[in-house]
Amino acid sequence: MKKIKLFKLKYCPYCVQAMQYLQEYMERNPACTSLEIEIIDEGEEKKRAAQYDYYYVPTFYLDTVKVHEGAVTRQQVEKILEDALESEQ
Prior knowledge:
The protein has helices at residues 13-28, 46-49, 74-86, and strands at residues 4-8, 37-41, 59-62, 65-69. By secondary structure, it is of the alpha+beta class. The chain has a single domain (4-86), classed as Glutaredoxin (3-Layer(aba) Sandwich), CATH 3.40.30. Helix 1 (13-28) links the parallel strand 1 and strand 2. The protein is globular, with a radius of gyration of 12 Å. The relative contact order is 0.28. The mean pLDDT is 93.
């Protein structure tokens, strides 16, 4: 299973939206409860966030591969979660 890292900022409207999409999809798909999702707020963990190559938030990584950076749609969030789940099989 691939681990998901999500970099965000607390007051970023795109991050708030991404978190909402993430929560909604996980509620509809119980299989997602097995996913390991690490949420890193770059405002609170600046040194840690600086270790990764991205500029915009929200940014998603699957394991060590950046799969999305910047404003995100519901479909993009769902695809990221589905890709992480598929690696489980």
